[in-house]
Design goal:
alpha/beta; 233 residues; 5 helices
Length: 233
């Protein structure tokens, strides 16, 4: 181990300790606006010093003056473009757990669904059509192993023979919405019909609106009762 040289000791004696300027002397220096010292030297303001506008007073009266007799006032009742359009007789009046009530007084019960095409209503039980999925006991159901809604092609026999065919089929799948299997969707699309899938209550409301706007010849509906349950076990 070598001892420090005499030259290093001489240089060390020449060094002077660095003295920081006092706060009183900082005013003589120009502080950069983005320096840390400038950030800490800024005055601190609190929300206690803020002033808020006084709260507004409520109106003394709601009287807006005498009623105008001019004809320029807007009558919002005439702005309903469908106000004078009669609803189709096959529009859904009520969705029950075991069936449906139509606007023309027809009641579909017994756990049957309904198929609304060209202004006519038909009882519809697609779970009884051949070619659909089955459970382990051989019972027919409408939900396949992938959790998709699927029925046999014979359930759409009426759509194959009707002419002219509707442009849109609104499909109500009961209490909740499920994805439709690619086979079922492909079969309906090959008939030249677009498919819109919802739960039964929303599907019925959409059918009532679109059938009133566009007519029952362009919009059809296939609805499952809201009380439908898949066989268990």
């Amino acid at each position: 181990m070598h001892l420090p040289s005499s030259r290093l000791f001489s240089r060390h004696r020449l060094l002077k300790p660095y003295a920081l300027p006092q706060l009183s002397q900082l005013s003589r220096y120009q502080i950069h606006p983005h320096s840390r010292l400038n950030a800490f030297s800024r005055p601190i303001t609190t929300s206690l010093n803020r002033t808020y506008p006084p709260p507004s007073n409520p109106p003394v009266t709601t009287n807006r003056g005498p009623t105008s007799d001019e004809d320029t006032q807007t009558d919002f009742s005439v702005m309903n473009v469908l106000g004078n359009t009669p609803a189709p007789t096959t529009s859904i009046d009520a969705c029950l757990s075991h069936g449906f009530h139509l606007d023309n007084g027809v009641k579909i019960g017994g756990g049957s669904g309904c198929l609304l095409i060209a202004g006519e209503a038909f009882g519809w039980k697609p779970w009884e059509a051949d070619g659909g999925p089955r459970d382990k006991q051989g019972r027919r159901k409408m939900q396949n192993n992938e959790g998709q809604w699927e029925v046999g092609q014979k359930a759409w026999g009426l759509l194959e023979v009707v002419w002219p065919k509707p442009e849109l089929l609104i499909l109500g799948l009961g209490p909740r919405m499920l994805p439709v299997s690619p086979e079922t969707r492909r079969f309906i699309n090959e008939l030249g019909i677009r498919l819109d899938v919802q739960d039964t209550r929303n599907a019925a409301a959409q059918f009532n609106l679109l059938a009133t706007e566009r007519g029952t010849s362009e919009v059809a509906a296939a609805l499952i009762p809201v009380g439908w349950k898949e066989p268990s076990g």
